[in-house]
Amino acid sequence: MIDRVLIAEGGQYERRRAAYEDVVGRRAVDTWDGNVFLDARVLVDLYDPHEVPAAARDQMIASGASIVSGAPFPEGTHPSIVLACPSLTTGPVALMAEDVGQIGRRTMAKVVVIDSAPSFAVTMFRSVLALVMLGGPLDRLSARRQPDEASFDGIYAVGRFKDGAIAYMEAVTSCFRGADVRIYEVMGRDQIREYDSRRSTNRVIDDDGIRPIPATLSDPYAVFVKDLWQAEPFGRSEQHVDTIGHAESGYRALTAALHAERAASV
Amino acid sequence: MIKPVRIAAISFDHGHQYSYLRAMLSIPDLELVAISEPNHEQRVRAEAMLDEFGVRDSVRVFSNHEELISCDDVDAVSICSANVMHHDLVMLAADAGKHVLCEKPLATSLSDATAMVQKCAESGVTLATAYPVRHAPQVWDVRARLARGELGKVHSMSMTNVLGARPRGWFIDPAKSGGGAIRDHIVHATDLMRWFSGSEVQQVYCEADTLMRDIPVEDTGLLIEVFASGAIGTCDPSWNRPTTWRKWGDVTGRIMCDHGVLEFDITDHAIQITSSDVTRPHAEVSFAASMNEALLRDFAVAVFEGREPCATGKDGWAGVASTEAAYLSAKTQMFVDVPSYPDA
């Protein structure tokens, strides 16, 4: 039974905090600062595990606390880690994935995520997850990263899905503000389905110009946290276990591919 | 008064030749003097265009390319044969002292491409590669902005040059085309990325397959190209869009720089600029012009002035080098080094 939730500072802190407050109440939610005693009654929500020292990650796992992480731990998988996948149940990728059977024999899927936020691992994991949702399990990936500087960090990957279709991924973080975009494409012999966040955003147009408004009333992270609480056992929605597993395997292959001459097997 | 360059159109296997023919008939610096086409249907279509322009009587029509090449009153030729014929026709034309504009891809092997470049240099004739996309006004504008360093350092270039599932005839006969979508399309995107970055491709990774239709060449592919400057390029050259695809093809690009993203689509007649400058975050620059006319005009002026054309034979060679590396990569699932031109 979890009775306390600790939110680590980092990307989307306010949204993550609000999502937990909705399900466990404000009093049970606090900020994780690394000095709090952890046990099995605590859940820690990390945005990017790479922003936490390795010793703190080890300590978290050893404490028996439940961990929600925006990206896989570098040390590997552990039963207490639940990967945060807000796009699995709501939003454009989830919608496209529902209808992917209508496109005919799949030829290609592309995911382009350009983000001004700095959390590279989270963007990379969620991009791979989107690829898996659109194209199924991956077979191999080859990739290059450029240029690994504070002002720009991008990864470019090409590979194959298990069904033979070709996979493309472009994940950029730390870009200047205003460049943010998400493009998802899945192509088959009969249909192409595309989403471009710049074209698909709901808008209000008035004397002040054009203002984007959220496409849905539900914040995807809030939906994710609600699902997390309802799942039995905690955090493991059977429906998504395979997809998340395939995405985590793809993420680890991608990491291996960055400096390799040969494509990494997933 | 300077006399126009007397030009001839050799082969209409590639449909671009009809567009070039129209351009030749519109540019004062060029005088169309002959065409050659062995295929009856294609020849009749070309003759109809001559009729349309009222020049049917002044332009000689051959059914044999060699006969045309041997004509003394031809200064230059535009070659748009099936890909595998480019080598033989360019060699013949260079031997006869004709300047050459050769359709892309320049050749179907690197050894052929090297021989063609060397032959033209030895013969003292211009060899231009038909990369009309370089002459799209949007592309000029993008290049100028990058050259001025308007948006800072180029980190990556993501390009597409895709088609609906339409190619047929010799395009899907590997004995005549030398390959499918990879052979046909990566040369445009690769050329633009080289031109934009002022840098050569060092390594290529490629996935390619026949997934859209049951044809004997690949129709779907994706590439990563690593440039000497450190920039990363990617290219989707596929013929895997449905036949209802809204464009004849496209050449699009998204160039990520330090301070901005440049996006262009040559079939949209506009470029979009998103900048980190908050006073002017978005801008659109519109154009409308014929890149084929600009290609032919550049070729004519290059021949006149004895200067290099915008896209040389060596630029065509570089496209072939990347293509060969891409095919090897697709077989081996490895990054493959791309050679430099032998004299570099």
Characteristics of this structure?
heterodimer; A: 266 residues; alpha/beta; Dihydrodipicolinate Reductase, domain 2; 2 domains; 7-stranded mixed beta sheet; 5-stranded parallel beta sheet; 7 helices; 14 strands; 30% helix; globular; B: 344 residues; Rossmann fold; 9-stranded mixed beta sheet; 6-stranded parallel beta sheet; 10 helices; 15 strands
Characterization of this structure:
The complex is a heterodimer of chains A (266) and B (344). With 266 residues, chain A is an alpha/beta fold. Chain A has 2 domains: 4-83; 92-225 and 234-265, Dihydrodipicolinate Reductase, domain 2, CATH 3.30.360.10. Chain A has helices at 13-24, 54-63, 92-98, 120-135, 197-200, 220-230, 238-257; strands at residues 4-8, 29-32, 42-46, 66-69, 81-83, 106-114, 138-149, 152-161, 166-173, 181-188, 192-196, 202-206, 209-213, 264-265. In chain A, α1 links the parallel β1 (4-8) and β2 (29-32). The model of chain A has no long low-confidence stretch (mean pLDDT 88). Chain B has 2 domains: 5-131, NAD(P)-binding Rossmann-like Domain (Rossmann fold, 3-Layer(aba) Sandwich), CATH 3.40.50.720; 133-291 and 322-337, Dihydrodipicolinate Reductase, domain 2. Chain B has 10 helices and 15 strands. In chain B, the strands form 2 sheets. In chain B, strands 14-13-12-11-7-10-9-8-15 form a 9-stranded mixed beta sheet. Classes of the chains: A alpha/beta (266), B alpha/beta (344). The A-B interface holds A 105-108, 110, 112, 114, 140, 142-144, 146-147, 151-152, 154, 156-160, 164-166, 168, 170, 172, 175-179, 187, 189-192, 261-263 and B 155-156, 158, 205-207, 209, 211-213, 220-224, 226, 230-232, 234, 236, 238, 240-242, 256, 258-261, 274-276, 278, 281, 332-335.
